[in-house]
Amino acid sequence: MRGFMTPYDPFREMERLERHFFNDPFFGGSSNCMPSFGTDITDEGDSYKLTADLPGFEKDDIKIDIEDNTLTLLAERHSEFEKEDKKGKYIRKERSYGSYMRSFDLTGIKADEIEAKYDNGVLTLNLPKQDEIKPTSRRLEIK
Questions:
Q1: Exposure pattern of 36-49 as b/e (b: 16+ CB <10 Å)?
Q2: pTM given for the model
Q3: 59 membership: H or E segment, kind and range
Q4: H/E element holding 142?
């Protein structure tokens, strides 16, 4: 082909590197693993409220684990294709499946009092704050 040139895209290599890096299983990714989902955290005074969008999940597909000082939310969605349709009836398949995961630091949180609720595709966690330890100071008398 005479005169055919690919336009230079300075970001092409960075995008390729990013796709490769975040899909590498060593770094927590794979073709079936979406590492995160949207969350909001609000300060409610004596607690924090964490709200996570997890539409299309069943309550049993969501796991909440606390280890050391880290809260981990894991949600797994299985493909209907995996479970039901192995005969190739799909004309188009766009719904995603796989594992979604987020981890949060629990510093300053009463981990044993965390409560969780799942309703209409929204997971809500109430994270009670630890009581503030107010520093006390005093001057020592030298004898």
A1: ebeeeeeeeeebbe
A2: 0.62
A3: none
A4: none
